[in-house]
Predict the 3D structure of the following.
Amino acid sequence: MKTRILIIGANGQLGTVLTHSLQQKYGVKHVIASDIVRKKSFKGLFEIIDATNFNALQSIVFKNKITQIYHLAAILSAKGEQDPLQTWELNMKTWLTVLEVARIHQIEKVFYPSSIAVFGASAKKNNTPNNAFLDPSTAYGISKAAGEQWANYYFTKYGLDVRSVRYPGIIGHQSLPGGGTTDYAISIFHKAVLKKPFICYLEKNTKLPMMYIQDAIRATIEIMEAPKDTIQERTSYNIAGISFSPLELYQQIIAVYPDFKTTYRPDFRQQIADTWPCSLDDQAARNDWGWKPQYDIKKMTRLMIDRLEKKYRLKTNI
Ligand code: SER
C-alpha cells in the first residue's frame, strides 16, 4: 500500500518543519497537512480539520486514503495553565479521536508526541530514566502522561502501531514559540539578533532538556521508520539532545553578540520548570531504534543566529 500521511497540527512549531521534511521524503502528493486554519504561505495539500470532530477526521482519512497519522495538535504547558480543564479536554479529545479513527480505518502507524512535562517531583532530576514514576505538575503534562497510556492501550488491545517520543524543549528558527515553558530558549535568539535586551522568565541556573529542531524532526521520522519489532516502549521514549540553563545559553550568545544583555525575572513558568528534569536518560531509544543527537549547544546557537539574521535581513529589505 502506498504511504499516505496526515499531519494534524501542521501549523505549529514542529508541524511546520515536519510537514516540509515529509513532503521531501514521500512527495508533496502523499502528504496531507491539516490544522484549524490554512496559512496563506502553505504549499501542498491541506485540509482544515477540527480534530475533536470524529466524523470530520474520519471522512478526511477515508477520502485521502491515509495510511499514517502524525498527531501534533496540543495546548502546551504554560498556556495550558490558564485553563487547565480546557487543556485536558482539547489534548485528550483530539488524541482519543485520532486513536479511534486510526483503529477503525486500520491505519498502519500513528505518531504521538509526548513531553518532558510527564515527569514531576518524584523523578530523578539528572538522567531521568525512561521508566521513572510519572507525577506531572501541569494540565498539559497530565494529558501527555495519560495519552502515553492510551497509546500503550491501543497497541496492546488492538495492535495499533502507535509510536511516541518525549520531546524536550524544541529550538527552531522557522516559527515563533507556542506557549511552552521552554520558549525562552527561542525568544532569546530573536532578541539577540534584533539587538534588543532580553527578559528571561526563568532563573539563570534552571537547566532543562532541549533539542535543536532538526534533531527532533529526525527522531520523529526515524522512530516512525524503524522496524515494528524494534519499538519495545509502547508508552513513549525519552530522547535527549542538549541540556542547558538560561545562563549557559546566554554565554553562547554573547560569544557572537558581546553587547547582548539579559535580565532574569522568574514568573509562574519557573514553578513548572522546577518540576521538570535537568537531563534525560535516552538509552532505550538509542538501543531500540538507534537514536543519536547531532547538534550540541554551539552548533545550535550558530545555526539559530545565522538563520534568524537572514530572516530579519530579508524582512527589512521588503
Ligand atoms: N516545550 C514544551 C513546553 O514547554 C515541553 O513539552 O510545554
Observations:
- The first helix runs from residue 13 to 26.
